[in-house]
Design goal:
The structure is a single chain. The protein is α+β, with helices and mostly antiparallel strands. Helix content is about 35%, strand content about 30%. The chain has 8 helices and 12 strands. The strands form 2 sheets. Strands 6, 7, 8, 9, 10, 11 and 12 form a 7-stranded antiparallel beta sheet that branches. Strands 2-1-5-4-3 form a 5-stranded antiparallel beta sheet. The protein is elongated, with a radius of gyration of 31 Å.
Length: about 280
């Protein structure tokens, strides 16, 4: 009788380490705040607990085996197929993408999705990670509504706003400013160019006010003359007010609001100066 013994200590250590690594990955996937799933042959073969909750299911079994068309809004089917085809062909720039998923009760769930090929249970599939962007979409909708309201308010009140940075000559105008000055919104100016639409006699006061706001945080309110592209308001009939706040980063901004005819008097128009 012959007996052959082999030390398998290292193999057992490797197996234990692999099992530990797999368990850590499983916990990471399960506890992820994002939906993580795998499609194989266009059927869902894996989904984490977050995905079950987001899609309104009571268990994973309610979702496993479903085709992607059952979980994605019909309006996004064609785009989804095209993205998957291109991603499997090696194109990485197709993700992330916004996709409308469907909860089991039929409600729409906006998601930001990334996907990549993966091997699952020895077969090829597509792993996807989807993040609920419901709150972001609500914030975007609220911002759009706010911008529309501001535009209407500017039109009605003949009010506009400037955002400037004297250090870099940066100037941003709202649509109201372009309307007041009779200029196309496609035009872009630096600060020094924009200031030429104010009376030359008022420019020193404007520059001093901006400098004091920038360096000392002093808010200001001025009445200055304004020149439009076709004519100008003479006298001191345009109000300008503003303050200063330092944005995140190296650039500072000063909002600068212009109100033509602030005192309610009828303006006297004159030809705009050139330059």
């Amino acid at each position: 009788m012959f007996c052959v013994c082999r030390d398998v200590t290292e193999r057992k250590k490797m197996e234990a380490a692999l099992a530990e690594s797999e368990e850590r990955y499983r916990l990471l996937v399960e506890e992820s705040p994002d939906l993580i799933g795998i499609f194989r042959d266009d059927r869902l073969v894996f989904i984490n607990s977050t995905g079950v909750s987001l899609l309104g299911a009571g268990s994973k079994q309610e979702l496993l085996g479903r085709r992607s068309e059952e979980l994605i809004h019909p309006g996004d089917h064609a785009a989804k197929k095209d993205r998957v085809r291109r991603r499997l062909a090696g194109e990485a720039s197709v993700y992330p993408a916004e996709v409308r998923y469907l909860r089991l009760d039929g409600t729409v769930l906006p998601m930001e999705v990334s996907a990549a090929p993966v091997h699952f249970a020895g077969l090829e599939g597509v792993q996807f990670i989807a993040r609920d962007i419901t709150e972001r979409k609500r914030a975007e909708a609220a911002l759009r509504e706010s911008l529309l309201f501001r535009r209407e308010a500017e039109k009605i009140g003949r009010i506009g706003a400037w955002k400037v940075c004297p250090e870099t000559d940066y100037l941003f105008w709202t649509e109201g400013i372009y309307q007041i000055l009779g200029l196309s919104p496609d035009l872009r100016f630096g600060l020094q160019q924009g200031l030429r639409y104010y009376d030359a006699a008022d420019l020193p006061r404007i520059r001093r006010a901006l400098e004091a706001a920038e360096k000392q945080g002093i808010p200001f309110r001025l009445e200055v003359g304004l020149t439009s592209a076709t004519g100008g308001i003479s006298g001191r009939r345009s109000g300008a007010s503003g303050g200063w706040r330092r944005a995140a980063g190296p650039t500072s901004w000063a909002p600068f609001r212009t109100l033509p005819n602030a005192n309610g008097r009828k303006p006297h128009w004159r030809k705009a100066r050139s330059g």
